[in-house]
Amino acid sequence: DRDVTGVQTCALPISIVATARGNGIHHEGIAVDDFNADINFAPGSPQYDSKVEAHVRNLVYQNRKLDNLSFKLAGRTNAYAVHMDAAALGVSMSAAASGPYNNGVWQGQLRGLDLTGSESVHLKLEHPVSLVVSRDLVRAEWMCLAGQPGSMCAGGEWNPTQWNAAFTAKEMPL
Fold it and tell me: How many CB atoms lie within 10 A of CB 86?
């Protein structure tokens, strides 16, 4: 059974109000059992409270499966709050960030990032770090997750012409 439904509106300055639901989706090597999204997003209106909630269940791409993915955004352009949860076999992640959106660029702080795996891995973000996200740039400053049994650190940048990233791990199981 394949079903996708939606309602959308757009106006200038841009605002998006949409509801989308779907199940049994298979497209170009991507499969999704179920998804739903409720979008009320007005990045061009600083006085407007935006709210976005999206959930995906059983996302499969190239033999990799993400059991659950949840994304939430709330607030006004000067202080969007973003939360994302993801779970796959033996691992889960939860992230929280906040910051302003202006002229197509979100500049925020990753305030929390928890990574849990099987029974032995429990890592947390050591301190908040800066993030920049736009259509032409994604940048994360050096961040470390520490806990049991060790630590992992990473940072990087992507733009349409190049990307670079660095990663270290100490006392982590392979």
Answer: 18
C-beta separation of 58 from 35 below 8 A: no
* Best CA proximity match to 74, nearest among 127, 38, 124: 38
Angle subtended at Cα 91 by Cα 89 and Cα 97, rounded to the nearest 5 degrees: 135
Q: Is the pTM of this model over 0.70?
A: yes
Q: How far apart are alpha carbons 117 and 90 in whole angstroms?
A: 5
- Determine whether 78 is exposed, middle or buried from the number of CB atoms within 10 Å of its CB (0-12, 13-18, 19+): exposed
Mean pLDDT by 10 residues, the chain (174 residues): 50 78 94 96 89 97 94 96 96 97 93 91 96 96 95 96 95 80
Residues sharing a CB contact under 8 Å with residue 117, sequence separation 6 or more, in sequence order: 90, 91, 92
Asked if residue 55 lies in contact with residue 37, where contact means CB atoms within 8 angstroms, the answer is: yes
Q: Which residue has the tokens 């002229």?
A: 103
| CA–CA distances in Å: residue 5 to residues 22, 37, 84 | 7, 11, 24
Which amino acid, 29?
Answer: G
